[in-house]
Amino acid sequence: MKLVLALFWFSTALILFTTLAPLTKSQEWWIRGWDFPRLHIALFALIALVLGLFVLSKSVAVP
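Structure (tokenized):
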């Protein structure tokens, strides 16, 4: 379960970075490259959200 949570937080950080990096004024190619796959990033974020809700609901004990 710890591995799944670690992967969830890693993917969340990656999605956050790929969303915010293009908003900077940097002209570096590896940052500008994130301007174009917006649909892919949004789909990955949706998948991560659904899986995250499932994983986090299993890891939190509800009395």
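The CA atoms of residues 21 and 31 lie 6 Å apart. DSSP finds three helices and no strands in the chain.
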